[in-house]
Amino acid sequence: MLIIFWVVAAILAVSGVILLFRKEVKWGIIFIIVACIVGPLLANFFGGPPAGPRSTSEPSPSSDAAIVSMRLVSEV
Predict the structure, then answer these.
(1) pLDDT, tens digit (0-9, with 9 covering 90-100), for 2-29
(2) Distance separating the N- and C-terminal Cα atoms of the chain
(3) 65 vs 67: CA distance, rounded Å
(4) Which domain of life is it from (predicted)?
């Protein structure tokens, strides 16, 4: 269901750009605005994942180095 919103949003956005090139500015802007509403807002409303980078459960390399150095200090 969510992919349908994004596909429709992409089609609307491309159609809006094409309308802008054809000098139909009012409809082009309307299509682009509707694409911005249909894609992220409706997908988020229906429970899609948030936009942006995904968080991982793996620890970062800097935290691994801190853990190793703490172990070395505690062994001494």
Answers:
(1) 778 888 889 999 999 999 999 999 999 9
(2) 58
(3) 5
(4) Bacteria
The values of phi and psi at residue 19, to 5°, are -65, -35
Q: Where are the domains of the chain?
A: 1-45
DSSP state of 50: P
In angstroms, the Cα distances linking 49 to 1, 41, 54, 55 are: 13, 11, 9, 12
pLDDT, tens digit, 9 for 90 and up, residues 15-67: 999 999 999 999 999 999 999 888 877 777 776 665 566 655 555 555 555 55
Decide if 28 contacts 19 (C-beta within 8 A).
yes
Q: 37-43: which pairs have CB atoms within 8 A and are 24 or more residues apart?
A: 38/5, 38/8, 38/9, 38/12, 39/5, 39/6, 39/8, 39/9, 39/10, 39/13, 40/9, 42/5, 43/2, 43/5, 43/6
